[in-house]
């Protein structure tokens, strides 16, 4: 999976598409990703949630099933989850099995993004919502388990033991694996990335993954990038630029500015203060709280609302200028097909040139 893992000398051509399972139906997303490939995109990041961030006109698609269908309908598009949370509802060994199976079907086209999750993924299924430190530790342990199930690493490495036949024993703080083995291992190397929005998660991404994913705006990301790079240097990495630094860039485009603004309101709840640590799991309550607390001004500061597709160029350049290697364009436009076509015609060529 060269485009995902080998980022030495990476250029501004590294722009991906974002598939939002909360806002669109699975069939619509399939149309979007096929159109995205036709218009020059080569990689897609896709959200992975149980509940959506919003209640009205929302969806709750199962991302793993969709990835298989999308990969079958596209020629070479690569797919990464943004992100899969190994807290309670997803056991690390099941994640390892699922993504190994996807890689067998679509070798070199699958990547795994891990994150510490949100309450809306766990609480509805009867689980308690852990503190941030516990969630981060779960994510790290999950990455260790998944890697050991995927690839042979003999011998005892801290809590992990893998024997010559590929059976893994792992005794962590949160996860216990008793001689588990993947009988259908991946056929190529699947990169693991980690979501980072704070210092500790940035350090974890540098130490335990192939790169970081962040939802933060470019200016807000500078500190995270610095911490990530310093952690790589401390780890004595051969070259800090060998690990990906990926950003989610939200944009809503329409010839009619008000229509673009209205379409972006679906994501208002993601701007609730400290939302990723909230215990609120009901989309109805998230929507109500967002309408009360998040102004249109704050929404406009977070999402690029524009009636000119060329405005995306300057915003994307800002991400690259502070060290990101890849930008995933998360469009919440009222006419998504038109956005993809206009972006492919007027924005992608600028960076490819």
Describe this structure in words.
The protein is of the alpha/beta class and 353 residues long. It has one domain (2-352): Luciferase-like domain (TIM Barrel, Alpha-Beta Barrel), CATH 3.20.20. 41% of the residues lie in helices and 17% in strands. It has 14 helices and 13 strands. It has an eight-stranded parallel β-barrel, surrounded by seven helices. A four-stranded antiparallel β-sheet has the order 5-6-7-8, with helices on one face. β9 (192-195), α7 and β10 (211-214) form a beta-alpha-beta unit. α2 (26-38) packs parallel to α13 and α4 (92-105) crosses α6 (132-150). The protein is globular, with a radius of gyration of 20 Å.
Topology:
Blueprint: H1 2-5, E1 15-19, H2 26-38, E2 43-46, H3 63-73, E3 78-81, H4 92-105, E4 110-114, H5 119-122, H6 132-150, E5 155-157, E6 160-162, E7 168-171, E8 176-180, E9 192-195, H7 199-208, E10 211-214, H8 218-234, E11 244-253, H9 257-264, H10 283-293, H11 296-302, E12 304-306, H12 311-321, E13 326-331, H13 336-346, H14 348-352
Parallel strand pairs: 1-2, 1-13, 2-3, 3-4, 4-9, 9-10, 10-11, 11-12, 11-13
Antiparallel strand pairs: 5-6, 6-7, 7-8
Helix pairs in contact: 2-3, 2-13, 4-6, 6-7, 7-8
Q: Which characteristics define this entry?
A:
353 residues, alpha/beta, TIM Barrel, eight-stranded parallel barrel, four-stranded antiparallel β-sheet, 14 helices
Instruction: Note the gap between the termini.
Output: 23 Å
Number of strands: 13
Query: In the CATH scheme, what's the topology name?
Result: TIM Barrel
- CATH architect. name: Alpha-Beta Barrel
CATH class: Alpha Beta
**Helical fraction:** 40-55%
Q: How many distinct helices?
A: 14
